[in-house]
Design brief:
Elements (H helix, E strand, L loop, with lengths): L1 H12 L10 H4 L1 H26 L8 H17 L5 H11 L7 H30 L7 H41 L1 H19 L1 H30 L5 H13 L12 H12 L5 H13 L6 H8 L7 H12 L1
Helix pairs in contact: 3-4, 3-6, 3-9, 4-5, 4-13, 5-6, 6-7, 6-8, 6-9, 6-10, 7-8, 9-10, 9-12, 10-11, 11-12
Length: 325
């Protein structure tokens, strides 16, 4: 939070961040409607993606329930520093309603869902870079950006292939040992477990990746619209698209609360690469416009609180034994 305050303060002092631009939503109600519509569509896509991924561990969730829990997760992603608390909260509510043996898989899906979101941004950045053609190499800054995207894409594609090869080489028994080593190497264990899930139903994983890319394309469309309205510059959608995925990837790095400050600086620099100004201001309007309505996720959470309490381990074991008999 201190990093976020320092970075935002520095941008304001340098006259590169204008909070007055937030009044745009009042001056142009159609932009507010577009913002809310984009958010609603993104929530739907996010819930569908998570619901689809849960099927990898044989958990089937009704769409209404998935939307309720996804909105709750978005609320906690905002109020809990770290941008991951919501994933845990919604997984807890799913885990309490499934068999004890399925619960580790439910929490693993939260990890897979987060990795899928990052991978989809990398794929989108690569697609946009390739579509630019020679324009991606016009200036040294653009060339460095294109090379960075290519390296990031290579790592993103190579890592799953290597993990899958490792899983096949060591077999299921060795893979389970890697998963059991979570207290020592949690990330490695989760990667191996995720690879095993992907190997069983790759088509389902690709469908989830498609939903994730569609979600980011929706955000890109809104971001480009806000850029044109706020900066009053000749900002092409292609130009904004060339930097949007990279800018959003900076929010993944856990440096500041919800990426505040880091994202502002990143977009200010990225906009300069494509010859535009006001990147920090556009990102500020986009961020607040997309996160503030998520506070309404407190309502489905309160509804969940009125539901039945999750069973204890002893109660779950007794229930499972009774069903077995």
């Amino acid at each position: 939070m201190a990093v976020a305050v320092l970075l935002v303060g520095w941008l304001v002092h340098a006259d590169t961040l204008d909070f007055a631009a937030l009044g745009l939503f009042l001056e142009a109600p159609h932009l507010l409607i577009a913002d809310l519509a984009a958010l609603a569509f993104a929530v739907l896509l996010g819930a569908l993606r998570w619901r689809l991924l849960l099927r990898l561990v044989d958990v089937r969730l009704p769409l209404g329930r998935a939307l309720q829990l996804h909105l709750t997760g978005l609320f906690f992603n905002i109020v809990i520093p770290g941008n991951i608390g919501g994933d845990v909260v919604k997984s807890i509510y799913v885990a309490r309603d499934v068999e004890p043996a399925q619960r580790p898989g439910v929490f693993l899906i939260a990890f897979v869902d987060r990795v899928m979101g990052v991978a989809s941004l990398v794929v989108l950045a690569l697609i946009v870079t390739l579509l630019q053609g020679p324009a991606a190499w016009e200036t040294p800054a653009r060339r460095e950006l294109a090379i960075g995207v290519a390296i990031l894409a290579a790592v993103t594609f190579a890592a799953p292939i290597l993990v899958l090869a490792l899983v096949r080489r060591i077999g299921s028994r060795g893979a389970r040992r890697a998963e059991d080593a979570a207290p020592v190497a949690g990330l490695a264990g989760r990667l191996v477990a995720s690879a095993r899930l992907a190997a069983t139903r790759p088509g389902m994983l690709l469908a989830a990746l498609g939903l994730a890319i569609a979600l980011h394309v929706t955000g890109l469309g809104l971001f480009a619209t806000l850029t044109a309205a706020i900066t009053a510059q000749d900002a092409s959608v292609a130009g904004v698209a060339s930097v949007y995925p990279v800018g959003m990837l900076t929010l993944v790095v856990p440096i500041s609360y919800a990426g505040i400050g880091v994202g502002h600086v990143a977009f200010e620099r990225l906009f300069a690469i494509i010859g535009l100004g006001g990147g920090a201001t556009v990102f500020n309007v986009f961020l607040i416009g997309q996160t503030t309505p998520c506070l309404l996720g407190a309502l489905p959470y309160l509804a969940l609180r009125r539901g039945a309490a999750p069973p204890t381990e002893a109660e779950a074991a007794a229930q499972h034994a009774g069903e077995a008999r």
